[in-house]
Specification:
By secondary structure, the protein is of the alpha/beta class. It contains twelve helices and eight strands. It has helices spanning 43-49, 76-90, 100-111, 133-141, 146-155, 159-170, 179-193, 198-215, 217-224, 244-251, 267-270, 272-288, and strands at 10-13, 16-20, 28-32, 54-59, 93-98, 116-122, 229-234, 255-260. InterPro entries: AB_hydrolase_1, AB_hydrolase_fold, AB_hydrolase_sf.
Length: 295
């Protein structure tokens, strides 16, 4: 198995740690990870797209190498404000979001449409009143005291066991995960275990998702977005119901929908070349001023 590319170098941009591809292409792209993820979730996709965009993958507040947010704000709006701060530095950009990150970039796009050239949403965590087993566990983890207890108990399990369980949940075929990427994930989890705020970052962000599920305001945000939008869902997603793709396709004003038959929750990690081909089409269409063709 060919050795994968190394993770991109990082820097601090205000309150966020950001990993970036070398500057070159004038078009900018900002990538936002999901719950308990990090900027490295985008390594391979950023590599596929580095010839047409300069990529900036954020560690959301309290995640990856970003410090905990002042005031402990892990809400979707709080995360969106942090991303907007980066966008004010990069200028208008193509936004990518997976899972929680999808919800964050939807909120950011609704708040600052002037900073958004296009959206690529991969299994976005938009409100669903019939969540699957995985989200149901997220709901449970947000219960006061129970969430903290669960985090403590899980933290006692070996990092290898926790990473294997996570990958089995987000990949349709965990066998596609390169051993080097697995080693990186284990090393990162061990590092995170040593941070005093890592558990609260996960619980706080999960609570932020749950709060939005009850408000339903993210769907209202989505209906206001006019930027060209690419929606990518995996038919074997264990966390976001693929049927939600239909509602998303009806809600966003200018959307193209792609359903991947043999993919799970994180298509940018599982099938980066496929996602890159779809995103490349959107970026080139946006350059030409053409709306994406519905499919």
């Amino acid at each position: 198995m060919e050795q994968p590319i190394p993770v991109w170098p990082g820097r601090m941009a205000g309150p966020l740690h950001v990993r970036e591809t070398p500057s070159g292409p004038p078009d900018q792209a900002v990538f936002v990870h999901g719950l308990a993820g990090s900027a490295t979730n985008w390594t391979d996709l950023m590599g596929e797209l580095r010839d047409i965009v300069t990529g900036h993958a954020v560690d959301l507040p309290g995640n990856g190498h970003s410090p905990a947010p002042s005031g402990g704000d892990y809400s979707i709006t709080g995360h969106a404000r942090a991303v907007i701060g980066l966008l004010e530095e990069t200028g208008p950009a193509h936004l990518f979001g997976n899972s929680l990150g999808g919800a964050v970039v939807v909120r950011a796009a609704a708040m600052r449409p002037d900073l958004v050239r296009s959206l690529t949403l991969i299994s976005p965590a938009l409100p669903d009143l019939m969540p699957r087993y995985g989200p149901a566990r997220v709901f449970l983890a947000t219960t006061p005291r129970l969430g903290e207890l669960a985090a403590t108990v899980l933290g006692r399990l070996p990092a290898e066991q926790r990473v294997a369980a996570s990958m089995a949940m987000i990949y349709a075929d965990p066998g596609l995960l390169h051993p080097e990427r697995l080693r990186e994930a284990v090393a990162e989890l061990r590092r995170r275990d040593g941070l005093p705020y890592s558990g609260q970052a996960m619980i706080g962000s999960a609570r932020g998702i749950v709060a939005e599920y009850f408000r339903g305001s993210l769907w209202r945000d989505a209906a206001t977005i006019t930027a060209p939008t690419l929606l990518i869902y995996g038919r074997r997603d264990r966390l976001v119901r693929p049927i939600m793709a239909r509602k998303a396709g009806r809600t966003f004003r200018d959307a193209r929908l792609v359903l991947l038959p043999n993919c799970g929750h994180c298509a940018q990690m599982e099938l980066p070349q496929v996602v890159a081909a779809e995103a490349r089409r959107l970026i080139l269409e946006t350059r030409l001023g053409n709306a994406p063709l519905a499919s």
